[in-house]
From TrEMBL:
<dbReference type="Pfam" id="PF19273">
    <property type="entry name" value="Exportin-5"/>
</dbReference>
<protein>
    <recommendedName>
        <fullName>Exportin-5 C-terminal domain-containing protein</fullName>
    </recommendedName>
</protein>
<feature type="domain" description="Exportin-5 C-terminal">
    <location>
        <begin position="112"/>
        <end position="480"/>
    </location>
</feature>
<dbReference type="InterPro" id="IPR045478">
    <property type="entry name" value="Exportin-5_C"/>
</dbReference>
<dbReference type="InterPro" id="IPR016024">
    <property type="entry name" value="ARM-type_fold"/>
</dbReference>
<dbReference type="InterPro" id="IPR011989">
    <property type="entry name" value="ARM-like"/>
</dbReference>
<dbReference type="InterPro" id="IPR045065">
    <property type="entry name" value="XPO1/5"/>
</dbReference>
Amino acid sequence: MSEVGRQQLDIAKQHAAAVTTTLNAVNAYAEWAPLSDLSKYGIIHGCGFLLSSPDFQLHACEFFKLVSPRKRPVYDSASDFDSAMSSIIQILMNVSREFLVRSSPAGGAIDESDYEFVEYVCESMVSLGSSNLQCIVGDSTTFSLYLQQVLLRDAMSKPKLSVHSSGDGLTATNVDSTLAQVDEEKRKILSFLNDDICSTILDISFQRMLKKEKLMTETALSPGILELWSDDFEGKGDFGQYRSRLFELIKFIASNKPLVAGAKVSERIIMIIKSLLNSPMPSQDLAVMESMQMALENVVISIFDGSNEFAGGSSEVHLALCRIFEGLLRELLSLNWTEPALVEVLGHYLEAMGPFLKYFADAVASVINKLFELLNSLPFIVKDPSTRGARHARHARLQICTSFIRIAKAADKSILPHMKGIADKMACLQREGRLLRSEHNLLGEAFLVMASTAGIQQQQEVLAWLLEPLSQQWIQIEWQN
C-alpha cells in the first residue's frame, strides 16, 4: 500500500503478486491443516485482515469458505479448536455486519462487483452453523445470524433407521435411541428459534417471493428493500429454486411455531386485501396477492395436515389457530370481486384454506356458496368469444370449478352434509343453461371426490346421477344414428 502511495506501481504489483501467491498456498492447507496451527501462526488473523482489501478479499474469503465446514478432529484440543473457530465466527460476523449496514437504506447499496464476495461470506456462515454449532449457541444474539437454510433443513430431516437381517428376521437396531437423539438435537436448535426470530424470517421470506417486474411501481405495495429478483434471473431457473427453499423455511416455522406463522400470514394477507380495496386499479396490484397464496397454502398444510400435534382436538393452541384462520376466511368471503383476474386469485385462496375446513366444518357451507357466487358473477355467454376478456372469463370459470375439486379433497368428510345442496345448484344451473359441459365435468369430478369419503355405494349413486343427463342425450335418434 505504501508503494502505491509513492506511485511505485510496478513494485506494488510485485508485492500484490506475492500476497496472492501466499493466499493460494494458505488455501492449499486450509482444508486439512490443524485449525489450532492456522490460528497460532496468525494465518486466520491475516486472512481476516485481507477481507477488507478489494484486491485480495476473494482469495482471503476462499480460506474462510474452506475452514468453516471443518469439524473438530479427535487429535485437536477441543478448547484450541473452539477458540480458533470462534475467531473465525467473529471475523465473518464483522464482515456480515458491515455489508448489512451498507445494504440498508441509510448505507446506500452493495456494488454489483461485491456479489461474489458476499456469496462466499454467506456460504461460510451457513457452513459454520451446520458444522460448528457448539461454537455459536453460547450467545443467542450471535446464533440468530446463523439460522440459515442448511441448518433448518437438517432440523426437518427424519432419521434414517439402520435395519439388519438376522436369523430371527429383520430388526431395527437402536431405533428408540436414534429417535431420542435426533429429537434432543432438534430441541436444542429449536430452543433458539424464539418467536421474534421466526417472525422476522417469515417477513423476509414473504417479501422475497415476489419479482420486482410483477409490480406496478406507482400503485403496488412495496416489497421491501431486499427485493432483488428479475426476469433474467428467473429465466435461468434460479428464482424458482430459491422460492422453493423459501417455502421449506415457511413450512418449517409453521410446523414448529404454528401461532406465529398463522398470525403472520393472516396479518399480511389482510393488509394486502385492504390495500387492494383502496386501490383505483386493484387488478394491476394483484401480483403481491398472488405471491402470498402459495405462502398461505404452505402454512395451512403444515398446520392442518393431520400429523401436526396442534391439528384437531380442543387444545388452547388449536382453538387459537381456528380463531386466526376463521378471521382470515371471513375477510376472503366478504370480498365482492367480479373481474376474472380477481375472481381467479380469490378462488386460489379459498382452495388454500381447504385443510383448515377439515377441522372447521361450520365454514364449509359459506365457502361453497361463495364459489357458486363467484361462478355466477362471471359472464356465461359473451358477444365475441375470441376477445381477451372472454378468454379470461372462461378461464376463471374453469378455475372456480377446479377449486371445488381441491376443496373437496382437502376438506374430506366435512363436505358430506353439503352434497345435496351442491347437487341442487348444479341441476339448477344446468336447467337454466348456465353451465358449460367442461364446467359440468369438473363439478362432477368434485362430486365424485366428495362421495368417495362416504363409501363405494354413495359413489356409484352419484355416478349414475351425473350420467343421467348424458343418457337422456344418448337415447335421442341423432345420437343413435
